[in-house]
Amino acid sequence: MPVESNAPYDHVVLISIDTMRSDALACNPIPLWPHKYHDIRPARTTVLDELAASGAYFPNVISAAPYTAAAHGAIFSGQYPLHNGLHEFYNGSLRAPSVFTYGRRAGRDTVLKTDFPIILGPQLGFTRDIDTYLVEEDDAFIDAVLARDSTVSCAHFGAVHAPYGFHNLAFGGDAYREKVAELTAELPPSLPFSDLLVESYRSPEDTELLVNYKRAIAYLHAEGQYDRLFQIYLDGVQHFLETRFTAFLDRLRERMAAAGRRMLLVLFADHGEEFDERTNGHFNSMAEAVLRVPLIIVGDDVAPGVHTNRIRTVDIAPTVLELAGIPAPATGVFDGRSLASVARGTQKLQGDAPAVAEAYTSELNEFVAYQQRQLSGQQPGALRHYLIGHAAYQDDRRAVRLTRQYSEWFQNIRPTEASWVEKFDESSVPRPVPDDDGADLLATLDDYRTALREPDQVPFTDEIRGQLRALGYSV
Questions:
Q1: Is residue 172, in this structure, part of any structural domain at all?
Q2: Which residues contact 231 (CB under 8 A, 6 or more apart)?
Q3: How far, in Å, CA of 156 to CA of 113, rounded?
Q4: How confident is the prediction along the chain (475 residues), in pLDDT tens digits per residue?
Q5: Is 282 exposed, middle or buried (0-12, 13-18, 19+ CB in 10 A)?
Q6: Do both 156 and 255 map to the same domain?
Q7: Does the residue 465 lie in any domain?
Q8: What's the distance, CA 250 to chain centroid?
Q9: Record's family (predicted)?
Q10: Is 134 part of a structural domain of the chain?
Q11: Which of 114, 121, 146, 190 is 20–30 Å from 42 (CA)?
């Protein structure tokens, strides 16, 4: 039933749950994983199930990229990565106006809290148009939002990302130490492992725990234990929701109600997680379960309903701005379309939207060396990136083209040429179509790539050094 309200929202609160695949939610009506994994215990996702039931729930949203930076850039700007300036894994800067830009222009304060300051931070342009920037401070985020009369804000949570459910020692505590000990107990003494990348500031013990956790995950993948890995991931989703997120959401809603504030709540993910012969997690994968994410919108003028047709993450920004009554250009800016009328229940979602997704990456060893130079205060120099794969969606088909692939243990990237077409069945599960060359879909990808331009190298200015020092880095 349509819901109408003329009163503006005091606060627009975006919530990003990093690495939350769409069907990690128990309420998902078109799950992918039961068709692939066996003897799996689903996660208890009560808080998200109840949230989805209270608002407009979109379980079939295609992300523009399978990694945090480019995916969030597309979500915040409503533009695909090749258009907004941030398409590579760790190069470029978000140049396009964002929901925070438009919020500021409308006189609202802006707040961003992230668990990944190295990625969603000043280096890649995410603090532009942000008044208050916080790292891993859930309560301070709520305080900052309620301290203003009107805001556009985002709370980003990284705890569903590996190490699944824990994030770090501050949130994981002894349960995190015990899980790492359990996983590493079965490892052989020597492994060809070099994934030393971090997304946030960590103590020496925290860094060692993360590296050991990722080493164990890489070993299980090399051993083909995909079902076990997926269970570990789902257990992490449940642990995060029960130990951190539910309490956060309760506090946020209680304080909004006590203050008499109207809130538009928008929950989404940037990408999912998958395990099979081609994919270990999400690292530059075109797997459907990696690209398909959830979107939940809750507000006084939002009608509860489930909308299973395909939409895109670039649709989020124009939808949020229209629902919130924040002025934004009507044409010529967004690659996405506003679904405000669908969320309000005044229009039915028709058809499946066309979509594209791309993944760029660098040699892992080069990236590790680059990050170590950066965090030690040196000019990091250039970081080479390569297109590793992309996908195009049209109606009930999708085509995937891979141009490079990682070796086991991510030791190097090898050029490859592989493409295939899949068709979605009545349950929205993609099935291979061997006799379809996907020429029309691949042409869509070629057309999209005409927008490619050389990305800006990540700057390393005195201002960024100062911000990193404030976050605890010794630069």
A1: no
A2: 37, 40, 41
A3: 6
A4: 555 555 689 999 999 999 999 999 999 999 999 999 999 999 999 999 999 999 999 999 999 999 999 999 999 999 999 999 999 988 889 999 999 999 999 999 999 999 999 899 998 999 999 999 999 999 999 999 999 999 999 999 999 999 999 999 999 999 999 999 999 998 998 887 667 777 777 888 998 999 999 999 999 999 999 999 999 999 999 999 999 999 999 999 999 999 999 999 999 999 999 999 999 999 789 999 999 999 999 999 999 999 999 999 999 999 999 999 999 987 789 999 999 999 999 999 999 999 999 999 888 888 888 888 877 778 888 889 999 999 999 999 999 999 998 777 677 788 999 999 999 999 999 999 999 999 999 999 999 999 887 666 666 566 655 655 555 544 5
A5: buried
A6: yes
A7: yes
A8: 23
A9: Belongs to the sulfatase family.
A10: yes
A11: 114
| Four-point Cα dihedral 331, 334, 336, 339, nearest 10 | -60
According to DSSP, the residues that pair with 415 across neighbouring strands are: 404
- Residue that has been written with the tokens 């990808």 in this structure: 445
Residue with tokens 């991931």: 233
Which residues share a beta bridge with 61? 293, 311
In this structure, the number of other CB atoms found within 10 A of the CB of residue 305 comes to: 17
Amino acid at 413: I
Residue with tokens 């040196």: 378
Looking at the DSSP bridge assignments, the partners of residue 357 are: 391
Alpha carbons 413 and 43: distance in angstroms, whole number: 34
Q: Which domain holds residue 39?
A: 11-161+227-348
3 state DSSP class of 366: helix
- Residue 120 token pair: 């969603």
Domain count of the fold of the chain:
2
Tell me which amino acid residue 397 is: R
The answer to whether 384 touches 364, Cβ cutoff 8 Å, is no
Using alpha carbons, select from 422, 458, 416, 427 the residue that is nearest to residue 437. Answer: 422
Residues whose CB falls within 8 Å of the CB of residue 204, separated by 6 or more in sequence, listed in order: none
Chain Cα centroid distance, residue 43: 19
Tokens of 173: 């505590």
From CA 150, how far away is CA 339, in angstroms rounded? 23
Which amino acid is located at 253 in the chain? Answer: R
Determine whether 190 is exposed, middle or buried from the number of CB atoms within 10 Å of its CB (0-12, 13-18, 19+).
exposed
Residue 405 near residue 411 (C-beta atoms within 8 A): no
The answer on 59 and 34 residing in a single domain is yes
Q: How far apart are the first and last CA of the chain?
A: 55
- The answer as to whether 243 is a domain residue is yes
Please name every residue paired with 157 in a beta bridge, in sequence order, or none if there are none. 17
Determine what percent of the chain falls in helix, strand and coil, rounding each to the nearest 5. 35, 20, 45
Block residue for tokens 């349509």: 2
* Residue 295, strand partner residues: 58, 268
Helices (H), strands (E): how many in the chain? 15, 16
